Amino acid sequence: MRRLLPGLLLFTAIMATAGRWAQVSAEECDNPGALSDSVKIQQCIGKYNGILDAIAKANSNNQEELNRLKSQVLNLKSQINSLDKRLTELSGDIFDREVKVGVQQELLAARVRTHYIRKREDAGMLIFFSSNSGGEFFRDLAYREKLAHNDQEIIKVVAGEINKLNTQAENMKRQKESTAALKVRVDKQAGAARPDYNPGFSPAFAMFSFGAPHFKGMSQYGAFGRAKNGQNYRQILEAYYGNVEIRKVNVPSVINTSAGTLAFEGNYMKGIAEMPTVWADRGGYEALKAQAVAARSYALAYVGWRINNQNAGGRICTTESCQVYNSGKAGSPGRWGDAVRETEAEILVSRSSGEVVNAWYASTSGGYQESYSALGHTTPGFWDTTSDWTRWADGAWEKKGESPWFYKDEVGGRSVGKEGRVTLVL
C-alpha cells in the first residue's frame, strides 16, 4: 500500500473518473429520466464531456506510445539488418581466408615432413664428404640451418593463423545465432505492439487507470511536482492532510519493528526507503522533507504512540505492507538523511482531534485525492490539479512531477507478470 512504484493497476479510467465526477456533480446524472432542471442537465453534460475528454486523452496517449514503439522497433530492425549484413561480409572474408589457409595447411604438412626428415639425417657428415673444400662445407651447413629456421618460422605463422581463424569462425557462429535471436525478439515485440494483438487467451480486454493504489493521503509524485514549483514541505503537507499542525514533539528514542528494535531518529527514520533520494537534486528536496514528516507520523500512529499517551507498545513491519525500511539506506542516507535531520521530531497533529495524524501516502493518485478518516482526523478530498476539474489531467501536480503511473494501461495481472502498453480486442 505504501510502495513508491505500485504494481499493476486494476481500475479502468472510465469507472475511476466517473466515480469521482459523481461526487462533485449532481447525483441525478445517474438517472437521466428524472432530470427536470436545465442547470443540472448542463452539469451532467459537463460531466460526460469531461469523461469523454479523459478517454480521448488516453487514446491519444495510446497512439503516441504505439507510434513511438513502432519507430523504435523499425530503427532496431534497421540496426540489426546492418549488423547481419556486416556479419555476412565478415563471413565471406573468413571463407576466403579459410581457402588460403587450407592451401597453407597442405604446404605446412609438407614442410613439417621435410623438417622432420632433415632433423633425422646426419646432415653434417653428408655435407662434409660431398664438399670439395672447408669453405664449401660451412656454406652448405649454414644454408641448411637457415632453411630449417625458415621452416620453423613458417610453421609457427601458419599454425597461429589457423588457430586465430578457428576462433574467429566460432565467434562468428555465436554472433549469427545471437542476431537471429534478436530478430525473433524484435518481430515478437512488434507484433505485441499492434492494436489487434492476440495475447493467446480469451476473452481479452483493455483497461487503463489513473493512479494507484488507494488514492488517499499524500501523493508522492504530486509532492514532487509541488516542490519543483516552489512549495515548501509545510504547504505540501497541509494540501494533502488538511487542517493539520506540524509540531515538534518528544518522539520515542526507539521503535519496535519486524527487523528488531531500532533507534527511531538515528536509524529507523534514516532507513525509510519510500521516496527517491535523487529527487533532492532535481528540485524536490521539500518533497523529501514532507515525506519525512509523513513517515514519522505514520510510524508513531501505527505503533500506538499518542499525544497524551506516548508509551507506544506496538510493532511496525519494514515492508511495503507498512512502510519500507532499508538498513543499507540507514547507513548511507545521503540527502534523505538531511531531510530527516532538518525535520527531526516533527509530526502531523490534527487541529480537530489534537492527535497524531495517521498519514497515509502513495506514489500516484491520478489527480484526485480521496478523503479518509483515522484517529479522529479527516483528510480532504480534492482534485490535485491547477486546472479546472473537468480538465484535471492538464494541470495535475503528479503530471508536473512526471509520474510514470499518472496514466497507465494494463494487460493481465501481477501474478503472471503480463504488464504492457497495448490495446487488446475481444
UniProtKB/TrEMBL annotation:
InterPro entries the UniProt entry points to: SpoIID/LytB_N
Keyword Coiled coil: yes
Signal peptide start-end: 1-22
Organism taxonomic ancestry: Bacteria, Candidatus Amesiibacteriota
Keyword Coiled coil applies: yes
TM stretches of this protein: none
Domain Sporulation stage II protein D amidase enhancer LytB N-terminal, chain residue ranges per copy: 273-349
Keywords, sorted A to Z: Coiled coil, Signal
Coiled-coil zones: 52-93, 155-182
The protein, known as: SpoIID/LytB domain protein
